[in-house]
Amino acid sequence: MSAIALLSFAFLFAYDAPLAPTASQEPQKNAGYVACLNNAAHKAIAKGAPEASAMAAIDGLYMPDEKIIAASRAQPESNLKIWDYLAGVVDDERAADGEKAYLSQKDFLYNLGVQYGVDPATVVAIWGVETDYGKVMGKSNIINALGTLGCGNGRRAAYFNSELIEAIRISANGHIPLSQFTGSWAGAFGHTQFMPSTFWRLAADGNGDGIKNIVGEPKDALASTANFLKKSGWDQTQKWGYEVIVPSTYNGAVGRNAKKSLSQWKALGVKLADGGELEDGETKYGLIFPGGRNSPAFLVGRNFNAVYSYNPATSYALAVNILADRIKGGKGVIGKWATNDPGISRAMRREIQQILAKNGYDVGQPDGIIGKKTNDALNEYYKAHNLEYDGRLGQVAYDKIKSLESGR
Which long-range CB contacts under 8 A does 291-296 form with residues at least 24 apart? Predict the structure, then answer.
């Protein structure tokens, strides 16, 4: 995500009036953009935002951010397999960090679970998947990001404009200082990445100071996420799901909402992934095959769906729930994915980036995130060895690069 410098408002407290800027100092202004921001600020004021603070939220913002526009036009990775996603998101490193994060706030999280009736480890897992426990929250100015997306002719401009109004209200009402109000290019912010409208519906004051600063105060963010899960139907008496073995003869309905009771699944011959018997019960679960019929299968229930509502992707909901299990000491996925080229962890990706950097290729800071720089470097590295890179950095490519390096 692109870094956008936040404006300094020191001049508001100056005793001497500033000199008028020369023509060369005059900032470039997009009149339509400025007018759109002003309109949003006045709508925020009409909804109760203090006028001076609402206008301060847009002060100094004159032009749409081209990096935000570029990010919004970029095509997301469409062929990312579930084993690649889980290998990077639910790796040993994130599980270990999740255990530490949980233990660091054990009493608070226990009370949070009691207060909201949700699983504290799942709250922590969402924190881990969304921002790596607050390490990667995004650096885009939220007001400018939403202004850029909401004040143009881009896709979903009306939606982003409404989010812009709510973001101005958040800052103007004192929940998040402008100096902290940064997040993703798409307008999500905080330790657990809320959109502004979601903030107003579900944000909670976790530390009892009267404000809901989900950027600067992890307890506020965790309480807000617990409230989200509660409102999404979390039932603490149920498991999110089970990894299972399904008879090859099963040809019935699949999908998270095509539910049968545990007793019905058991009668159909479905067993736990470790070969044990599925428990009897009337609680209903749907059957999913996220990697295809020859890969691990899962029975998923209403708690899986509660996480799914946070980010409507099967891979996301599965990652969060598996990470929550690992934070509580579980082993993760037992079955083997139907691939000869499994995904690799962030630590392994960083190792590859370090090898590329050592060989003189520009990968930026080795961070385990495989972006354009790393892919370009991999292409060049492969060419230097008279090989062709197929665009996939999995176990096969990892082993190949390690082999090439050991033979140097």
Answer: 291/81, 291/82, 291/83, 291/337, 291/338, 291/339, 292/338, 294/338, 295/82, 295/83, 295/335, 295/336, 295/337, 295/338, 296/243, 296/333, 296/334, 296/335, 296/336, 296/337
Distance separating alpha carbons of residues 293 and 316, to the nearest angstrom: 19
Question: Going by DSSP bridges, is the β-strand pair 255-261/284-288 parallel, antiparallel, or unpaired?
Answer: antiparallel
Q: What is the pLDDT of residues 238-265, one digit of tens each?
A: 999 999 999 999 999 999 999 999 999 9
Which DSSP string do the residues of 118-133 spell out, in sequence order?
S-HHHHHHHHHHHHTT
Q: Does domain 31-73+142-203 have CATH number 1.10.8.350?
A: yes
Enter the DSSP assignment of 151. Answer: S
Q: Which two three-digit tokens encode residue 374?
A: 């790393």
pTM (two decimals): 0.90
Ranges of each domain in the chain: 31-73+142-203, 241-327, 346-406
